[in-house]
Amino acid sequence: GNIESGSVTPLVSDPSDDWSPVFSPDGEKVLFLSDRDCDENCNNLLEIDLKTSQVRKLYSDYHFFLGDYYSRDMVFLSHDAEGLYHIFQKSLSASGEKSFCRNFSQQVGVRLFGQKKLTFFSNRENQYDIYTGGIDSGECLKLTCHPAIDAFPDFSHDGTKIFFHSNREDNRYQIYAIDLTRQVSYDHLIEVVRDMDF
Predict the structure, then answer these.
(1) Do 86 and 102 touch, CB atoms closer than 8 A?
(2) Which residues of 153-169 are buried (b: 16+ CB within 10 A; e: fewer)?
(3) Angle at 107 between CA 103 and CA 111, to 5 degrees
(4) CA-to-CA distance for 182 and 47, rounded, in angstroms?
(5) Could you read off the pLDDT of 34-54 as tens digits, one per residue?
(6) Contact 101, 133 (CB under 8 A)
(7) Alpha carbon of 54 to those of 58, 138, 177: distances in Å?
């Protein structure tokens, strides 16, 4: 779109539904989800080259993608497969995929730090909490335990903190940080961002 005139133009013109755009790290491509060219309840993972406007299909499945992350040539998605939500890793340049952190609860908002660590939020214990996991080990660790909604985590630039939002104080949403360098559990890790030194 043109920011000066305030006009908005579609990136892709198609009668199907397209949603959840994510930029590639180099800024030259956009990854998005679409129901084009497939049956009901099917979802496609598509990529558009911003220079050529060419669209290619990367993956297709009959289960709903709940989130995504685009990093180099890998895609990390929360995926509903036969009642099990799991995070899986798929190469855009080679065949094969890896599944980990499988659970019957939703696991969404996946974010990656480097090629080794990820974070996400899940309602595994009937409340939304923050988790982290190792891509190589496949193990997941619960970081928060609170009846409030802890959601949409992301790593700091150096990977030592995880930021997320929560309504744990007077039902107001605020930004919190988890210090991953401190060896204590659950809420002792958490500080409100406004009180932290950077």
Answers:
(1) yes
(2) bebeeeeebbbbbbebe
(3) 130
(4) 39
(5) 888 776 667 788 889 999 999
(6) yes
(7) 13, 35, 40
